[in-house]
Amino acid sequence: METVTVQGVDVPALGLGTWPMEGERCRRAVATALDLGYRHVDTAQMYANEDAVGAAVAAADVPREDVFVVTKLLRGNLAPADVRSSFAASLDRLGLDAVDLLLIHAPSSSVPIEETMAAMNELQAEGTVDHVGVSNFSVDQLRAAMDASGTPVVTNQVEYHPYRDRTELLSFCVEHDVALTAYSPLDEGGVVGDETLAAIGERHGKTAAQVALRWLLQQPNVVAIPKASSREHLRENRDVFDFALSAAEMERVYELGGGAPARFRDLLGP
Question: What residues are annotated to the active site?
Answer without folding.
Answer: 47
